Amino acid sequence: MAPLFETGKTYTFYFGQEHGHTNITGQVISYESPLVKIETEGLTRIINCSSSYFVEAVARLEGDETGDEPKPSEEV
């Protein structure tokens, strides 16, 4: 089975908490189930994907830094 997270790819990780939801976007440095190591905003973070607070991770398209849906290309 292929690894869940690709090294070098950027993901947004979503977490649910008692008082709301939060997310972190970062580039995967390494993955060893259930831990994923990411770099974001100059920090290195370790995320435990087996945590009950972990909701999902979404791979970002190349060049998509805001996390927004991609915009359709403009016609010339």
- Give the H and E element order: EEEEE
Q: Which bin fits the share of residues in helices? A: under 10%
Coarse shape: globular
Mean pLDDT: 85
End-to-end separation in angstroms reads 43 Å
Strand order of the largest sheet: 4-3-2-1-5
Beta content: over 45%
The low-confidence parts are 67-76
Structural class by SSE content: mainly beta
Q: How many H/I helices?
A: 0
The count of strands amounts to 5
For the biggest sheet, the summary is: 5 strands, antiparallel
Radius of gyration: 14 Å
Structure commentary:
The protein is mostly beta strands and 76 residues long. 0% of the residues lie in helices and 51% in strands. The protein is built from no helices and five strands. A five-stranded antiparallel beta sheet has the order 4-3-2-1-5, with no helix packed on it. The chain is globular and about 30 Å long.
